[in-house]
Amino acid sequence: MSVASWERIKSGWVTDIYFLRSLKILREKGLDKTMARIEAHVYSLPHGWSWGVYAGLEDALKLFEGRDVNIYSVPEGTIFKPVEPVMVVEGPIGEILDLETALLGIIRHASSVATKSARIKKLAGDKMVIFFGLRAAHPAIGPMLDRSAFIGGCDAVSGAYSEELLGVKPVGTMPHALIVIFGDQVKAWKAFDEVVEPSVPRIMLVDTFYDERVESLMAAQLLGERLYGVRLDTPSSRRGNMQMIVKEVRWVLDLHGYKNVKIFVSGGIDEKEVVALRDLVDGFGVGTSIAFPPSIDFSMDIVEVMRDGKWIPISKRGKLPGFKQLYRCPNSLEDHVLPWGSESPLCNDGSKARPMLELYMSRGKTVKDLPTPREIRNYVLDQLRYAEI
C-alpha cells in the first residue's frame, strides 16, 4: 500500500533526497552538530488572501518527539500574516534536516485546509457549515482533513471516527445511493425514520428523482414535525439557478405550513456559492473546496547558526535573518515582528502587545499542554471577528 507509516515518517524516510545527501556531506565534514534555528513562515498567500490559519502543530510536535530539538511556536489556530514567524525549530542541524520535508507537509496541508474552512465559515456567518470532503482525498489523511476543517471553523464533520479521534460527533444523514436502492424516495425516507436513532436529525435528501420543491413537500408531508430539514445536493452540472431553486423550495414549504423545516445545500459549494445563498439557507455541506484548497506556501529557512558559542543571525537572500518574536495586540490582529528578546511594543490603542511564540518542546519532549480541537476552533472563531475577506 502506497502509504507511509508514522514510524517511517518520524525516521526521516519521507524526505527529499537532497536533504539526505546534505546530511551525508555535513556528517563527513563534521558539521552535522552545528546548532541552527530554522524558522517557518509564509512570504506570500494565495491571490486575494490577507491571512491564514496556522494548523498542524500537534502532529509537528509528535514528529520531533525524541529528537534533540527545541520548538517554539504560536498556538495552533493562530491567524497569521505574511512574513510573520509561526514556528522555530532549534537544535543540531543533523537532528532537523531529514524531517524538514515532513514538517512542511504537515503544517502546509493542515493550515491550507484550516484556512479555507475559516474563510467559508466567516462568509457563512451564523449558518451551519459541515465538512463533507473525505471522498476528495486519500483515506489515510481523512482524520487530518476532518480535524483541520473543524478547527478552522466548520461546525461539524462527517468522518465516522471523529468522535473517537477528535471528540466531535460526526454529522450526516443519507446518500443518493440509499434512495436509488429503494427505488422510491418515500420508502427510503420512511426506512431512515424507522431505523436511525431518534437523536439524529431527520434531514432528507430531496433531489434524487423529482424536482427539489416536489420532493421537499413530499418529505414534509411524510414526516411532519419530525422533519428537521431537507438537503439539496444538486450538482452544478444540472442545478440551473440555485438561488431560484432554494427560493422555490422555501416558498412551497412555507405555503403548506412547514416554515420550521430548514434547508441545507451541498454539491460544489465554495465561497461564491456561500455568499449567494447564505441569506436563503440554514446550512452548507462543503467538500472539495475545503479538502483541496489553495496552498498556504510555508517555507523553512535558517535564520541563526551558532559560531564559537554565540548565535549569529544569517539567512539566504530575500529572507530576514535573526531569531524573531511575533507580538499581537489584544482584541485585534495588529501584529509586530521584532528580534527575540525585544520589549513588548505598544499597540495603537496604548495597550501592550503580547509575545506569541512560546516554547512547546524542549530536547524532544513536549512541555506545554495542548488544547482540544474544540478549544482550538473557539480560538479561531474568536480571531475571525477581526479578520476581513
Features:
18 strands; 389 residues; seven-stranded antiparallel beta sheet; nicotinate phosphoribosyltransferase; 21% strand; six-stranded parallel beta sheet; TIM Barrel; alpha/beta; 14 helices
Task: Characterise the protein shown here.
There is one protein chain. By secondary structure, this protein is an alpha/beta fold. It has 2 domains: 6-113 and 294-384, nicotinate phosphoribosyltransferase; 125-291, Alpha-Beta Barrel (TIM Barrel), CATH 3.20.20.70. Helix content is 35%, strand content 21%. The strands form 4 sheets. The chain has a 7-stranded antiparallel β-sheet with strand order 13-12-1-5-3-17-18. A 6-stranded parallel β-sheet has the order 7-6-11-10-9-8. Strand 17 and strand 18 form a beta hairpin. It starts with 5 loop residues before the first helix and ends in a 5-residue tail after the last helix.
